[in-house]
Amino acid sequence: MKARLIALFALLLTVCFAAPSFADEARKTERRTPVVVEFEGSDTLGVTLFTRLQDALNSTNPAAPQREAKFRILLTTASEFPSRPGVGSVYAVVWTLALSEGSMEYYLVRDLGVVTPDTVDAVVTRIIGRTDGVAARYGYLDRAK
What we know:
The protein is of the alpha+beta class. The chain has three helices and four strands, in the order H-E-H-E-E-E-H. The chain has a four-stranded mixed sheet, covered by helices on one side.
């Protein structure tokens, strides 16, 4: 009896922890408008945040098929304490939508926070989650969908 309960509990945990991978697969097909990250900053943590964010977005949402409209993530970072650059960085993120190259962009939302060496992956996950929400909320502006 105890062994059955443990096996059932283990199966339940397996299913619960497998669910995020299904969400990742759904994300790949939901966001059709490409996302481009533009970065401004020279601090080490900011560069790390930018590269991990760009890698994560490229792996979950390659910019294919090519579309004229693009969501832009404008990421700006600076050392939180200039005398201790490895401790933390402040970041600001702005999401915009450009319907065509050279056209005026729609300002959508913004966010800001602090990133530390321990929280880089969590911040990347947060920005990607927010990007998915922005794409779902404002995707109707890209009429060519």
